[in-house]
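In response to the reviewer comment on reproducibility (Comment 2.3), we provide here a single inverse folding case reported in full, input and output, so that an independent group could reproduce the run without further information from us. The structure tokens appear first.
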């Protein structure tokens, strides 16, 4: 899979895309990720990418020219399955959307900024608008990093069997069970007896039961989806 991210702040994406599982996926050639600086596509002599809003007092707006140039430059090289815009008024991102995106071949993510983007960009170039939650971020870069991370870890071969994405929280609308490591007792705090039993069947049943109980208690909304 190939992901092209267009942003005014490429530096913000540096760290999340170059560590841990995403880094490994890139090294293995399972995910090809390219970060593009929007300024490189500006025809303005000062490389500006924003301008005043036609509606008074509305703050700066991302202009259509550099965005159109960036998208068209990428489209000349290959076809894209989705051109995503990260914005707080987009559709709420969830595991189902991550699964859907992980099946695509090429996607572009345009990171929103300032007081928004010229509506003509959204009307003519964007195929999907995504928000990562009901709160306001300074820019769409962190959202793009979140989307990329959640999608890349789903690509075949990225995770080992042991950490398989199929056993992730949310994959079947259940939260993960609690986990423990050595020592079996620390300052009087004990690991549940059953985990020390060596009985795989009993342990699996316990884990499933714990998942159900935690989901009921912590995320009743998810539990409804699981049981309904
Ligand atoms: Cl995608 N962008 C911004 N600026 N804020 C957000 C968001 C995106 N998702 C939630 N809040």
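Designed residues, in position order:
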């Amino acid at each position: 899979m190939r992901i092209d991210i267009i942003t005014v702040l490429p530096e913000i994406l540096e760290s999340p895309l170059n560590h841990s599982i995403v880094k490994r996926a890139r090294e293995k050639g399972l995910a090809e990720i390219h970060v593009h600086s929007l300024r490189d596509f500006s025809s303005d002599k000062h490389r500006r990418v924003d301008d005043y809003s036609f509606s008074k007092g509305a703050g700066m707006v991302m202009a259509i020219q550099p965005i159109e140039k960036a998208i068209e430059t990428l489209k000349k090289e290959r076809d894209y399955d989705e051109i995503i815009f990260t914005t707080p008024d987009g559709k709420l991102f969830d595991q189902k959307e991550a699964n859907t995106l992980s099946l695509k071949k090429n996607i572009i993510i345009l990171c929103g900024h300032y007081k928004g983007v010229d509506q003509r960009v959204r009307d003519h170039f964007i195929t999907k608008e995504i928000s990562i939650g009901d709160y306001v971020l300074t820019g769409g870069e962190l959202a793009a990093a979140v989307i990329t991370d959640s999608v890349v870890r789903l690509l075949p071969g990225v995770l080992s069997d042991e950490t398989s994405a199929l056993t992730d929280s949310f994959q079947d609308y259940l939260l993960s069970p609690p986990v423990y490591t050595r020592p079996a007792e620390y300052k009087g705090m004990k690991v549940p007896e059953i985990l020390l039993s060596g009985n795989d069947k009993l342990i699996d049943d316990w884990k499933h039961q714990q998942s159900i109980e935690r989901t009921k208690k912590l995320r009743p909304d998810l539990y409804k989806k699981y049981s309904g």
